[in-house]
Amino acid sequence: MRHILLLALSLCVVACSKSKDVANVSFAINFSPSFKQGCIVVRVQDAANASNSAEKTFSGADLAGKTPLKVGYIQRENWGTELKVTVVAHERACDGNVVVAQSEFVVNMAGDGRKPLQSVSLVTPDEDDDGYVAKEAGGTDCADTGPNAAARSPAKSEVCDEIDNDCDEAVDEGFTVTTIYRDADGDGAGAGAALQRCLPATGYATQGGDCDDGNKDIAPGKPEICDNVDNNCVGGVDEGHDKNWYKDLDGDGWLGQASLVVQCAQPDGYAHLPASERFDCNDNNKDTAPGKPELCDNEDNDCDDVVDDGVLNKGDPCNNMSCTGTYVCNLTTKLAECNAAAPRMFYRDADGDGDASSTAPQREVCAGETDPVGYVMSPRTDCDDADPSTKPGAPELCDAIDNNCVGGPDEGLTCNGTLKQVPDFHLRSTNRSWKTVSTGPNGYPVWIAGSGGTWCGGRPRGRSSRASAMGIQRVPTRMTEAPRPMPVTAAITTGWRPGWIHKGEWFWAGRMGCSLFITELRR
Q1: Which of 403, 412, 451, 454 is positioned for an S-S bond with 433, CB 3.0–4.6 A?
Q2: Domain 3-121 carries which CATH code?
Q3: Region annotation Disordered: residue ranges (predicted)?
């Protein structure tokens, strides 16, 4: 390693060959290896006499590859034994440039011979080799390392690149500023906050509003295509494209709104609704569509939002014989028909035997009305509606009456005044249980007896009878005319069973087994 020797007026490189008896000292100056374009000054001064001084400047080739830099000093005559040593590193040339590092120390030169080595360390980084030391180390280079280091130093000219190129702590000064936006996808439109920058500005655009700055196919002004994406950044999706598809479900040639499918591609069997057409208001009924004739079916067939408009008579009052109703729709014929049901026909049952005569007065009963008392609907086959024992199906009795309304009186019977028992017969009286009937040889008079001493006597046909009782109140029937009451014995208190007429006299027997005599019959 070469040494630099400080002599009286100059410095030189040593491996000092002077007499070892002369006082001398060596300095080892360490500096950053990248400090190749700077300047280092070594100054030695007599501490007792400032006018005694010497210095040496090192730059360029003196520094390249020479760290540490070794400098030697041989004591001079007439100098004091104490030296003040100053080592200064300048950015670039030494003349008036920035001092980036400095070290001062004192060396005692008393006595002869070599003094201990003096080491000095200077931090002088210039990593980008542009001759400027990093600001962090006391220099003026604002970017000594990093991707923009080569473009930045005090010697650079400012360009429009968002960088402080000339290290004056201002960016892009001297350029016209405009509003720009970061354009990450390079489609000519940016996004994010507006920035004030000069032009040209790489990676920026003067137009903002890009709604997807990661997709170059999406930006303001781009054509909108049907892809479920806002291509032109106007805030809508697929505007200008009809994505509504409809189907004709009932096959009547009209599209139904309920079948809507929203998508770009046309589904199979679907179509767009033409601008001149309306929707089918019921796409499940082929009789319903715009322009269809209105039917009486409780549907809006012509899709004019009115049901059954123009249908004749619908809603008007109507009659079915004596019953009233309203014209309503028949869903089979699709016409308006009266909804009043035909009345039920009832016929007067005069004798209360459940059958009316063919000439009985009739009565119409409408739906919801109560069935009339004393009337029957059918049959109308009673041949004597004044006699409850006479009607089709009644047992034929030996009473000279056609009880069953078939083939005349007493057909098939040998009567001759013989009496017959009639179980549970009644003559419209309350709580009467009629047990037996007896007639005269010619069928009249008629005598009927029942439980509890109840009896009824009747005159020839065309006249009426009276019911009475022994031991109970007399109860009149609808046969109000009666013969003179018969005297009876007080012993007759039981229910009557058999009875017969003989020679104008009437005989009854009761359940007690007694034979009773009743007065002579009177005509």
Answers
A1: 451
A2: 2.60.40
A3: 137-157
